[in-house]
Amino acid sequence: MRDDGQAKLAARALCTCLLIIATGCASVRQELPNTDVYLADFDAAAGSVRNVRNITARPGYDNQASFAEGDSMVYFVSDRTGGTDVYRYEPATGMTTRVTFTPDQEFSPTAMTDGRSFSAIRVRKPDASDEAYTNSQQLWRYELSGRPVAPVNGLNRIGYHCWLGGNTVAMFIVGDDDAKRPHTLVLYDLVSRITSTIASNIGRSLQHMPDGRLSFVDKSDTTSWMLSAVGASGSGIAPLVTMPKGSEDVCWLPDGMALTTEGADILGWKPPMKTWRIVASIPSANGPVSRLRTDATGKRIVFSVLEPTQGR
Description:
The protein is 8% helix and 44% strand. The protein has 312 residues and is mostly beta strands. The strands form 6 sheets. A 4-stranded antiparallel beta sheet has the order 2-1-24-23, with no helix packed on it. Strands 3-4-5-6 form a 4-stranded antiparallel beta sheet, with no helix packed on it. Strands 7-8-9-10 form a 4-stranded antiparallel beta sheet. A hairpin with a 5-residue loop joins strand 19 (251-252) and strand 20. The two termini are 31 Å apart.
């Protein structure tokens, strides 16, 4: 770690906490923050982030980016028509294309393993609020053309999701503060149609690990969040490492290193390390960085930046 690493982490903790508040989970209808999506080349071994480019560069909400279609495309959501739709960015040409045209809202576009589809959280009552909005959130399958196919299952209140192979999906089920129900981690098997509740008080980041397990952030201890792992079958929950204060978005490199962000820094952790270290800094970031994702090689990253024009 750099000599000033710990000082930088502490100095940026408050800023990152504000980001978490501003961009929390897709749970209730709220004003969306002013965020942009960036794409960059990344070398963890060299500690470098190069060729950083803002691929949205517009006022408003652009967020939740991930690689798709064999990493040849970047999918993200954007609010350009009064509601969020899925957009596709092609790095080779710099072209951006709107993908979905539903009357509803879409969030968290994610490539499916069949190579012919993507999934997204679809809000069927985008003009509602509170519990009516939340209860309408379902996980849908879409053709690459953007045509909605059908719900993946009959569950509601789905905030985020992650595929663990073709037949198993992990889901963040939005809780209910009034009913004192916490957010929960649920696994659903598409073949058996069995739903299993795995953990409670979880964070929004659900990620498929290189060893086949699922990682999630356990927030049971509100003062010390824990990055944890569970088998794809739902067995063997294991704590891995305490998260940096206020950080909750995680992704994984092919070599088994976990990445998260703090301010404009990318932090890494890998066994047998006891804590996170600064791997690289993102040059020219205008605000806190979140929702970091890598491609399959770990050589390219996409991330969101809360732009300074957003009032807090």
